[in-house]
C-alpha cells in the first residue's frame, strides 16, 4: 500500500529494467527511518549503521543521492524532513564528514514539489554549511581540497598515487569542487526567490570564480579530462 500511495507505476517492454526500477524503490523504502517527533524521517546509507555514521545513522556522503530519489515520493515529508535535518540540525562535523551536494539536491526537490516557502526557509542553513567549508579552501587557487576518502572515493586513482591507497592525500578534486559549484548555484536560486540580493550577488561571484578555477587548474588539455591535483 505504501508503494501505491507514493511511487509512479510503470509498464515497459524490458522486464529487466522494470524489475530494477521497482527494486530501487524497495531499497529506498528499507532505508527510510522514522526517528523522533519533530525530526521525522531520515534516510540511512546502511541497513545496519556503521560506527562512523552520524546521528540517526545518516552519512552526508549519500545525502545528495538520497534526496534526489526521495523527491519523487508523493508524500513530501520524507524529503523535507531529511533536508531539514541537514540544513538546520547537524553540526559542522556531520555536514562536512564527506563532500556533499545537499543544497543542490534540495533545490532540485523544490523543482518537483513546487514548495517555494519550504526551500526559501532553508537558505540561511545552506549558506552556513557552504561557508563553513572555508577550512578546506585554498584562496591562492580558489579551490577546495579534500582527500579521496572524504570525497567518498577511497581506492580511487588519486589514492593509488599516494602511500595511503584507501584514504589518499589531500588534493583539489574535480568532483568536490563541482559539488560546491552546484551548491553555490542552488543558493543563488534560493536567494533570488527570497529576494536577498546580498546573498545572491555573493554566491554569483563565488560560483563564477570557482568554475573558472576548476577549468584553469583541473582540466588536462592533453588527456581532455578533469583530474585530481595533489596538494603540496
Automatic annotation (TrEMBL):
Pfam families from the UniProt entry: MGH1-like_GH
Gene3D superfamilies: 1.50.10.10
InterPro entries listed in its UniProt record: 6-hairpin_glycosidase_sf (IPR008928), 6hp_glycosidase-like_sf (IPR012341), MGH1-like_GH (IPR054491)
BP-aspect Gene Ontology terms: carbohydrate metabolic process
Protein's organism: Oppiella nova
Mannosylglycerate hydrolase MGH1-like glycoside hydrolase domain boundaries: 58-229
Name under which the protein is recorded: Mannosylglycerate hydrolase MGH1-like glycoside hydrolase domain-containing protein
Amino acid at each position: 500500500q505504501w508503494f501505491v500511495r507514493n511511487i509512479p507505476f510503470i509498464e515497459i517492454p524490458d522486464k529487466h529494467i522494470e524489475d530494477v526500477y521497482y527494486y530501487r524503490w524497495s531499497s529506498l523504502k528499507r532505508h527510510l527511518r522514522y526517528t523522533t517527533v519533530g525530526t521525522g524521517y531520515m534516510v540511512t546509507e546502511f541497513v545496519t549503521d556503521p560506527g562512523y555514521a552520524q546521528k540517526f545513522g545518516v552519512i552526508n556522503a549519500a545525502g545528495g543521492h538520497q534526496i534526489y530519489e526521495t523527491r519523487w515520493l508523493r508524500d513530501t515529508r520524507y524529503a523535507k524532513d531529511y533536508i531539514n535535518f541537514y540544513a538546520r540540525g547537524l553540526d559542522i562535523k556531520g555536514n562536512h564528514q564527506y563532500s556533499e551536494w545537499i543544497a543542490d539536491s534540495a533545490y532540485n526537490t523544490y523543482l518537483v514539489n513546487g514548495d517555494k516557502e519550504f526551500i526559501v526557509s532553508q537558505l540561511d542553513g545552506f549558506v552556513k554549511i557552504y561557508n563553513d567549508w572555508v577550512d578546506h579552501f585554498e584562496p591562492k587557487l580558489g579551490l577546495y581540497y579534500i582527500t579521496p576518502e572524504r570525497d567518498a572515493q577511497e581506492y580511487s586513482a588519486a589514492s593509488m598515487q599516494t602511500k595511503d591507497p584507501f584514504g589518499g592525500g589531500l588534493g583539489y578534486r574535480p568532483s568536490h569542487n563541482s559539488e560546491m559549484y552546484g551548491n553555490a548555484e542552488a543558493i543563488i536560486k534560493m536567494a533570488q526567490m527570497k529576494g536577498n540580493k546580498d546573498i545572491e550577488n555573493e554566491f554569483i561571484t563565488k560560483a563564477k570564480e570557482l568554475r573558472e578555477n576548476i577549468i584553469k587548474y583541473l582540466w588536462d588539455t592533453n588527456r581532455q579530462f578533469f583530474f585530481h591535483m595533489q596538494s603540496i
